[in-house]
Structures are given as structure tokens and as C-alpha cells.
Design goal:
Elements lengths: L2 H10 E15 L7 E16 L14 H9 L2
Antiparallel strand pairs: 1-2
The protein binds adenosine-5'-diphosphate and magnesium ion (MG).
Length: about 80
């Protein structure tokens, strides 16, 4: 990719997401709750939203759509 093309792409980007991850700790049930692993709700998501364009995040329930949006918004 030429330097000029790269500059235009950055200028046209409204939102750039690169390698987004969000892991939630998984705990055992019972009296002593220990962390037993991590739930990888979002794992390495990348996309660019360009000026004047629309993108849709599509997938089955629980695949991480809401977590992707919330993590970007830090909400
Ligand atoms: N606050 C949270 N704590 C633990 N696990 C969560 C939390 N929020 C979402 N998850 C888990 O992360 C995964 C993705 O959920 P979510 O982003 O809500 O999916 P979608 O919006 O695509 O239905 C699910 O397995 C869900 O149970
Ligand atoms: Mg959702």
C-alpha cells in the first residue's frame, strides 16, 4: 500500500478497531469461589468504519456483539 493511500484511509476512518479482546473471569460455584478460567467474549476483533459508511455486526446470540460495542465505548 502506498503512503498516500494509507494516509487517505486513516483520514476517512471514523473508527478503527484493531485486535480488540475482552475476557471475563470464570469462577467455580460453591462456598469457595475460585477463578477457573477466562471466558473469551471478544477475541481479536478488527474493523474500520469509514466516513459515510455503515457496518453491521451480525452473529448468533452470545457471540460477543454487545461486548464488542461496550468495550469500544468503555461502558
Ligand atoms: N459482564 C459479563 N460478565 C461475564 N460474562 C459476560 C458478561 N457480558 C457478557 N458475557 C458473556 O460474553 C459472551 C458474549 O456476550 P454478548 O456480548 O452479550 O453477546 P451478544 O450481544 O452477541 O449476544 C456471552 O458468553 C456472555 O455470557
Ligand atoms: Mg447483545
Amino acid at each position: 500500500m502506498s503512503n498516500q493511500t494509507e494516509k487517505m484511509e486513516v483520514k476517512d476512518a471514523v473508527l478503527e478497531v484493531a485486535g480488540l479482546c475482552k475476557y471475563f473471569p470464570l469462577y467455580s460455584t460453591g462456598v469457595i469461589r475460585r477463578q477457573i478460567g477466562m471466558l473469551r467474549a471478544v477475541d481479536n476483533v478488527s474493523f474500520t468504519l469509514k466516513k459515510g459508511k455503515t457496518i453491521a455486526l451480525v452473529g448468533e446470540s452470545g457471540c460477543g456483539k454487545t461486548t464488542t460495542a461496550r468495550t469500544i465505548l468503555r461502558a
